Amino acid sequence: MSTVRYTRKTAPRDWIRTDEWDPISTEGLDDTEMARIAILTEAINLYVSGGPISNYLKDSSVSRTSFLRAFNRCLCFDGEGRQLGWRGLLPRLRVKAPVRTKSLIPSGRNGQGGLSGALQLFFRRNEDVKEALDKYMLNSAKRASGHENKLRHRSAHKKFISLCRSKGVAEFEWPFNTKTKAKGAINAYVKRFIHARYDDIVATQFGDRAKAKSKTGTGYASRLTAVRPFDVVELDEHKCHFIGSIGIPAGDITRWLPVQRVTIVLCADRSSSVILGYLPILRREANSEDILATINAALGKREKYVFSEGMEYTPHGGFPGDLGGPFSWCGFNQLLVDNALSHIANSVVDRVCDIAGCDLNFGPVRRFDRRPVVERIFGEIERAGFHRVASTTGSNPFDPLRQDPEGAATKAQVRLADLLDLIEAVVADHNGKVGKRNHGARPLERLQSLVNDDDGLGMIFPVLPPLLPGVAGLELSIVPCFVRGSREKGRRPQIYFEEEEYFGKNLADRWDLLDKQVFAHVDRNDIRQFDVFHNGVKVDTVVVRGRWRHSPHSRDTRRHINSDLRSGYLEVGFDEDPVNAHNAALSKRLTRVKGVDAKGVVGAANAFAEEQRVRAQSAPKTASDCLQDAIDQLNEPDLPSSNEDELWNMEDLGAFNRGEQ
C-alpha cells in the first residue's frame, strides 16, 4: 500500500466514486467483522459526500486513524490495475505484496528456515539474472529455435543455477547454501510465470485445443446474434470418427481395403440448429469445389439421396429442402467460415456472395467457439451414430472405443455404400430431434411453423431470385483457360485442361482466340466436356480428345491416374479407358500383395472410393449400385461411349484433325 495518505480533499475525484465500486459479500465472516464493515461503509459514504463523520466515528468506537487507513485501503489498486473499492474493507486481504529487505541468513533446523522471499530479494539485486531466466522460459514455452519444445520446471531450475554460476555467486551464498538449491522457489516462480503469460504460451505449452478452449468463458459475448433462422449460418469441416472399407476383386476373391476417414463439410443454421446441407468426401482436405457444392446444397439445390435396401429416414428426419416452399432456393444473411485456404479462394468469396446474397465472416482457424453450433452438431452426430460403428476411431487416440479400426473395417467388411447411408441417416435424423434451442420443438417443425406464421410475426424468408441469364450455378466450376494452337504447325484452336486437349467444332475456326483467356463452365463430377465462353459469349461445347472420353470422371480422379502414369504404377494402351485400366491395375496388384500397406495400393483404393462417392452423389441411384457398377467394369473390355450427341467417336476425331468439317 502506498505511504501517501489521501483524504477526501486530496484524493482524485474519479477514485472516490463509491457507487461504481464492486460490491462485496460478507458470508463467512463473524459478527464483529460484519459490524465493522457496515460501520466503515456508512462512514466512507458519509465522508465522500462531504458530511461530518467525527460524531459517527466516536459513537461507533472507531478512531479517525483506523478510518483513514480503511479509506486508503479502498483507494489502492490490485495487481491487475483495478481499484480495490469495497474489497479494501475485508479482513485478511493483503493489499500490497510483501517485500523482503532482510539479508539472507539461514536459521531454524539445519539452516533451512528464515529464507522466505529469498528469490524475490535475489532477483531485485541481480536483475540481469531475472531477465535472462525470463527470456529462457518464454523461448522454451514458445518453442523458439534452439530451445526445448515446452517449459519444464527441472530445466528452468538448471538454467537458473547455470546463470547463478555465470554471475559468480559464491558457494556459501544463496541459493547454493540450501539443500535443494532453491528448487521449490523456482518451481513456484515458473507457475506464476505461466499464469502471467498464459495467453501467449497456451498453444505451445498446452496444445491447440487448449488454446481454442481458452478463448471461451472470457465474459465477452459474440456480437453476431442470430435473431431469426437464416440470420447466421456456420460452415466447417469434420473428420468422422470411423473408418470404412471397400471390396475390390482380386482374382477369384474380393480384397477388402480400409479407406481413409470420411470428411464432412456441413452448413448449419445458428438460430434453429438445423443442418441445411452437407457433403461427404474421402480426401485429406476439402477444396474450394467441395465448399461450393456444400453451399449449393444448403441453398436448397440438393440432390435427393437414395438409400440402399434396409435404410430409410426417420419419420421426423430430413432437410429443409424437403419442406418445399421458400426452402427450395433460400439464402442467408451471414456465413461464418474460418481462414482455411479453401474458404478464402476467389471462387468461393466472389460467387457465394453474388449468388447467396450473404456476407462472409472469416474467423481464425481452430477456433470452434466462433462456430459453436456446427461444432456441437458434429459432436452430437458422432455420439448418435459414428461412435457406434465397429470401426470407430474414438474421440482421441486413447479412447477405449478405439480398437484397431482399420482391422475392424476390413474384418466386418464395412462397405463404403453403407457408410454413406449411415452419414445421410444420422445427419437427417438430427433435424428431427427435439431440443432446447427450438423450445421443445424439432428444427424442421420450427421452420414449418414459421412458414405457417404460427407466431404471428410474419417472417420474411430470404428467398433468392432465379439466377440471371449467363450466371453459372454453384454446381459448376468456373475455370479460366487459354486457347492454344498454331497456324504454322496446323494445330487448330483447342483448350488444354487437366493435361488433356479439348476440341470443339466451332472452336476449331476461332483463330482470333489464340492465346486469349476463356472461361470454362465445368461439371465437377464429369469433366469429359464443358462449355467455353469468351467475353460472355458462348464459344463452343468442347470434348476431351482420345481415351478419356469413355467413362465419366472427376478432376481428382484424372489427377490421381495421371500421377500413377508418371510414376510407372499404371500403363494405359491406345484408346484404352484410363478409369477402367486404373481399377483393373488395382485389382491385379491386390493379387500379388499379402498386406494392405503395399506402396500405392491403399492410396489407389482411396481414389477409387472417392470416385464412387462422387458417382453416388450425382447419380439417381443408390451408393451400393454405383459401387457395384464400377466393380463390374473391372473385367469388361473398354468400349467407346454410345452417346454420339455428346462425345465424338474416333472417326470424327480423325476427320477433325485432318481439317474435314
Structure, described:
There is one protein chain. The protein is built from 20 helices and 13 strands. With 661 residues, it is α+β, with helices and mostly antiparallel strands. The chain folds into five domains: 77 residues; 100 residues; 221 residues, Nucleotidyltransferase, domain 5, CATH 3.30.420; 83 residues, no CATH class; 81 residues. Strand 4 and strand 5 form a beta hairpin. The C terminus is likely disordered.
Structure characteristics:
single chain; 661 residues; alpha+beta; Nucleotidyltransferase, domain 5; six-stranded antiparallel beta barrel; five-stranded mixed sheet
Please describe the topology of this protein.
Elements: H1 31-48, H2 54-59, H3 64-75, H4 118-125, H5 127-141, H6 153-167, H7 183-196, H8 198-206, H9 208-214, E1 232-239, E2 244-250, E3 253-259, E4 263-269, E5 275-281, H10 288-298, E6 334-338, H11 346-356, E7 359-363, H12 372-384, H13 405-411, H14 416-430, H15 443-452, E8 476-486, E9 491-497, E10 500-503, E11 517-523, E12 529-534, E13 537-544, H16 555-567, H17 578-590, H18 601-618, H19 623-632, H20 650-657
Helix pairs in contact: 4-5, 5-6, 6-7, 8-9, 17-18, 18-19
